[in-house]
Give the backbone structure.
Amino acid sequence: MIQFENVCKHYGSNVVVDRLNLDVEQGNLVTLIGASGCGKTTTLKMVNRIIEPTSGKIIVNGENVLKQDPVQLRRGIGYVIQQIGLFPNMTISENITVVGQLLGWSKSRMLSRAEELLSLVDMEPAIYMNRYPNELSGGQQQRIGVLRALAADPETILMDEPFGALDPITRDQLQNEFKNLQTQLHKTILFVTHDMDEALKMADTIVLMRDGKLVQAASPEDMLRNPADDYVVNFIGLDRTLRSPDEVLVEESMIPDPVTIEINRGLAEGLERMRKRRVDSLLVVSHDKILSGIVTIKDLQQNLAKGGRIGDVMSKDPTTIHIGNTVREAVLEMARTGVGYLPVIDDHNKLKGLITRASLVNVLSDVLWSNPEAQPEGSASDRAKEVQVR
Amino acid sequence: MMNLLGAATALFPIQMTSKSSVFARVVKVISDNPDEFLTALGQHVFNLVLIPVLLAIVVAVPLGILATRHAVLEKVFLTIVNILQTIPSLALLTLLIVLGLGIGTRPAIVALFLYSLLPILRNTVVGIKNVDPFLKEAALGMGMTGWQRLRMIEMPLAFSVIMGGIRTAAVICIGTGTLAAYIGAGGLGQFIVRGLNFFREELLLVGAVPSALLALLTDYLLGRFERKVTPRGLAIGDRPGHQQ
Ligand SMILES: Nc1ncnc2c1ncn2[C@@H]1O[C@H](COP(=O)(O)OP(=O)(O)OP(=O)(O)O)[C@@H](O)[C@H]1O
Ligand SMILES: [Mg+2]
């Protein structure tokens, strides 16, 4: 069990962890999640005193860590880092039992423990015991990284983005393996991630941090159903937009009736429409809603004195996306071109809608928290629900 | 120009004879006095290379380790050995004599020891500092004490870099050691000094060629030794565990 009581960490005037209170119950896996720089790693490293807290108390197994000898404390806590950090000068078996060696285990005890653990992750001991880390794949290396943390059978394990450096497929495998392992071992685990999918998959409790503060601590189910505030909603939404974007089509997340203007209208009329509809750009269409260009408030203001038609000042050939493309493709296209919105067109160049960053977030977060019964059959939300369960 | 050349020939009127006859004379010098040659070689290897380099290892490696623990020490140590390195060899030898070390082997050993400090110290510092910080953190997180981290992680990973420094030091000693003959420390330099004094080309070569070969051989053997004791996981070439 790990308890944080009013834990703070300051670097000068910079408050990195701010009055954190948190209990990691015995046998639970708690994920710390939040934007980069919000203090997850700092929080984790204060537990094994790689970083010393500025104030507050951290209690591991009933005893304040600051009262314990850091070397002894660390030998009793498993530690896995994203960079894996296997010792390249030691064999796999030596790496696995390095803590045992520090604790003065006998050679035979270390060997049998290494064999036992390798078998646990289906790595044939005869093959791997005497290899060196650089003779293993990344996924195998991190399996060893995890085994090294388990070897001395610590009650508590700290993991800092343990699967973050792996390719998606390997990551998924290791997550599953580790989850199975945890159901057998019931360790008390503090697990840092920035991947909401990973948090939802692994956690008994998800702790969302922001600027060093705890925003919400809840079970995955609870966090999805009752997000504490907009930040949580956005965080989960944003993240999932980036995570499962290949199943959602652009037409499901576009604004279906963006503000348009006909190509032959005057500039003043364009400005008036922008003011009324509170937008700062208009999609320019010709007859039959064929997309011709985009005009921004700047284009209009700069040319207002000269007069003329919308068609004269608009930017032609805007970046667009076709109906039937996925949200992933939309996101990639936005990233590639740096635009914040994409008009959606069909094969005849007819305007169908508009994708904006906000619309991407909204549709996916809407879908996540909507009440299934309240949704009409076959709606966009149904499709996205599949995304969620996947 | 002509005058300069003339002066040079006057100073070193070495007869440029055919190669085979020079070679024959070199062999003759050695075979006439094999004991003298072997004694000189032995002096060179032991007094002018082995002893100063071993002393330098004993001093520079611990100082280098200390330097990686305190930034101030690193500055101080590296500045001192850098200054030592810039003193010209003969000046340093003379200085040591004047400082009361007398003439002979003692000042030579001290001078070569001082020259060996820089490459070994610098490589010790660099080797340890370049160990991947995440490995250091993993070692810390496993519960290693500072000493255990040094022994189990940092020194093994810095080993080949430190060995590089030792090889450099040995080669410096072999070369600079030829000058030690001027202050009566013996070694292969004796033949060079005598060859220059008596204008005898073959004597010069008896000193110069074996010391050049000795340098090459030493570097090669130390390289082999290094590869032999390096575990497979640290195979030279891609040196894992080091920041690039
Ligand atoms: N030694 C330090 N001195 C000053 N500031 C630091 C130090 N270490 C970390 N910080 C700051 O503390 C904040 C939190 O860092 P931390 O590593 O805990 O973030 P994180 O949540 O783990 O981020 P990431 O997801 O990027 O790993 C960051 O803003 C960082 O710049
Ligand atoms: Mg981090």
Remarks:
- Chain B touches chain A through 25 residues (CB under 8 Å).
- Residues 196 and 204 of chain B are 7 Å apart (CA to CA).
